[in-house]
Each structure stands twice: as C-alpha cells, then as structure tokens.
Amino acid sequence: MALEGCLSVSDWQAQWSVLTHYPLKRIHVDVGCYRGRFLSHLAMMCPDEHVVGVEINSEYADAANELCLGLGLENVSIVCGDALMFFRDATPQSVISEVHIYFPTPYPRAIGQRHRLVSAAFIDAVHQALLPGGSLRVLTDEVNYFGEIESLFSPMRWWSSIWQPMSVGQPTGFLAGTSSEARYRGEGRTIWALQALK
Ligand SMILES: C[S@@+](CC[C@H](N)C(=O)[O-])C[C@H]1O[C@@H](n2cnc3c(N)ncnc32)[C@H](O)[C@@H]1O
C-alpha cells in the first residue's frame, strides 16, 4: 500500500478491503502516534507487517505522515481522528495483532477533549478489533491513570502477560522508545507498563 497522505477515519474504513489483499501477516496500531517516531521505527524493523498510526491532532498526523514518506516506508497508514471512533466504527472484528498505547493524554481538556481516551468503551472496542491472542500494550507515567486502566481488564476477557520486550532500535532500558518515554525518563519519572492478551 503506497502512502499518499493522512486518512480520515471513514477513509480508513474503506481501506480495509485493500489491506486484506496484501500479504501482510500482522497489523499494529499505534494509538496517539504523535509525530511518528515509534511507528516509523516499528515499520522499519517489521517490513512485512503493517503499522497504522491514529492521531487526533492533524498537525502531528501530518508530521508523522511526512516522516514516513521521507523514509520511503510503504507499510504505514496514518489516520487522523479519534482512536475510539477508529476502533469502534471503522475497524472490523478480529483483524489487529498488536495495539500500542503509549502515554495516552492524561488531561484531555488540555487538548479540547472531554474524557480520557482509555475507558471501558475504548477497551471493549480494542478487544473486538484484536485477533485472538492479540496484544494490547500500555505505558504511562501517570499512576492514577494507570490504576484506572488496569481496572478495565476483566480476567474473563483478557489474559494478563508480563511485558514482552520489543526490539525497535530503542535505547537500552527503554520499553518502547517513544518521544514521551525519552522525555519522561530524562525527567526521572516512573514509567508504568501493562500488557494484556485477548
Ligand atoms: C502524550 S502524547 C504521547 C505520544 C506518543 N504516543 C509518545 O509516547 O510519545 C498523546 C498523544 O495522543 C494523541 N491523542 C489524544 N487523544 C487522542 C484520541 N482520542 N485519539 C487519537 N489520538 C489522541 C495526542 O494528540 C498526542 O499526540
């Protein structure tokens, strides 16, 4: 799939038939991909897999798209829109292998949103989109948001897992190597990590 520009959530819905014709084994979603640092590393390390970045801020989504275009990455799609709508309204059931949610915005009013993204409805929508055995990974430096997120994983629907290390060229000791992780580690903050399997 050639990368031409950011997609809207409804464009993305229409792309599914194209994506499923490609011989790509696994699809990752980077929720709140910011300017694309992590997703571009992931796409470079996994050229046979597809990486979708979902970003609500159009300036950041455009920057992520430009970064991936500049790197010549063809296994990336950038969707500009709300991640809840992306999973709930525009993604078929049981198609995603891995969902990465790194440093979700803890104070949504600061970006014009009324609620925190990671809610029961959001976790339910992600669960539907994941393949059986698919994985959801969360990092945050906000301990109260972490507790809130942890409480959303019903043991009836999710298997808890230890954090499975990834190799995406991140510095030693980093869990994912996103821009926020670099910044918060630099400030000496504690990073909380969770991984759950469908
Ligand atoms: C704190 S930043 C973290 C960025 C990146 N994941 C990282 O670790 O560096 C949170 C990002 O999520 C985006 N975001 C916030 N709410 C969102 C939503 N509902 N849907 C998609 N993206 C969202 C923000 O615009 C921002 O780029």
Strand-helix topology:
Elements: H1 9-19, E1 27-31, H2 37-45, E2 50-55, H3 58-70, E3 76-80, H4 83-90, E4 96-102, H5 120-129, E5 130-140, H6 143-150, E6 159-161, H7 179-186, E7 192-197
Parallel strand pairs: 1-2, 1-4, 2-3, 4-5
Antiparallel strand pairs: 5-7, 6-7
Helix pairs in contact: 1-4, 4-5
Bound molecules: S-adenosylmethionine.
S-adenosylmethionine is lined by residues 32, 34, 54-57, 60, 82-83, 102-105, 111, 113, 117, 178-181.
Describe the protein's architecture and organization:
The protein has 198 residues and is of the alpha/beta class. The chain has one domain (9-197): Vaccinia Virus protein VP39 (Rossmann fold, 3-Layer(aba) Sandwich). The protein is built from 7 helices and 7 strands. It has a 7-stranded mixed beta sheet with strand order 3-2-1-4-5-7-6, with helices on both faces. The longest helix is centred in the first third of the chain and has 13 residues, at 58-70. The mean pLDDT is 93. The structure holds S-adenosylmethionine. S-adenosylmethionine is lined by residues 32, 34, 54-57, 60, 82-83, 102-105, 111, 113, 117, 178-181.
CATH homologous superfamily, by name? Vaccinia Virus protein VP39
Helix content: 25-40%
Q: What structural class is derived from the secondary structure elements?
A: alpha/beta
H/E series, N to C? Answer: HEHEHEHEHEHEHE
Average pLDDT, rounded to a whole number, is 93
Strand order of the largest sheet: 3-2-1-4-5-7-6
**Major sheet summary line:** 7 strands, mixed
Query: What is the 3D form?
Result: globular
How many domains in all?
A: 1
CATH topology: Rossmann fold
- pLDDT < 50 stretches: none
CATH-level-2 architecture: 3-Layer(aba) Sandwich
Number of extended strands: 7
Which class in CATH terms?
Alpha Beta
Hetero groups bound?
S-adenosylmethionine
Radius of gyration in whole Å, from Cα? 16 Å
What percentage of the residues does DSSP assign to strands (E)?
15-25%
Number of helices: 7
First CA to last CA: what distance? 28 Å
